[in-house]
Amino acid sequence: MTTLILLAGGIGKRANLGLPKQYFKIEEKMIIEYTLENVSNVKAIDKIILVSNPEFMKTGEELMESFSKISSIAEGGKTRNESIYNGFLKVPENETKVLVHDAVRPFTPRWVFEKIVEMLDEKGVVTTVNPITGNLIEVQEGKALKIHDRSKYAMGEAPTGYQYSALKETLEKAVKKNYLNKIPHDILLAMKAGFEVDILYCNCFNLKITFREDIKIAKALIKILEEGI
Predict the structure, then answer these.
(1) Is the pTM here over 0.85, yes or no?
(2) Tens-digit pLDDT profile for residues 8-22
(3) Domains and CATH numbers, the chain
(4) Which positions ≥6 away from 70 have C-beta within 8 Å?
């Protein structure tokens, strides 16, 4: 069995849309609704824990009525990692696998989720990456210092998958040693807890809606998908 923790607790400051971007509407649907439609159709996902911005809990409850795979709702925390922790507290203890995904990634191919769930039969932690196609330039004070070998790096994406026991140990150690909110990403928490993090190269378009300009890209993609262009 696999549970997806869907992170929708952010405030969307960089997008400057007047509300958290996951609740922004494109063609009469909120971005989070497009994401929920996508992940709800992933056969390998059995349950969804929706981690909501605290000011949009009522919206979360309404979404729960529309999407049957949402089993419960948790309040988002001060950081991404705290939101994951809050969501994990709602995951059944008899669960075997847990995925973590962003509500503002509505176009992630479903095969990515399926493949990560499959990999978790043998791996403790698996995260999605994309290759870096441009030059990787180290900068300082507005000047280029060095071009790095991009083959040694990858662009971090989502989802990330965990065996239940691996995520449990990762979060418990972070809370016990008081670094849950001091480390910026959950895979760093996993590595600090002693887990190897395997990667899945997506090699695909996996837009994370971050800035206002991304809304225009999302609108175009939604039109293409709906019209089958």
Answers:
(1) yes
(2) 987 655 545 678 899
(3) 2-227 (3.90.550.10)
(4) 36, 47, 48, 49, 50, 63, 64
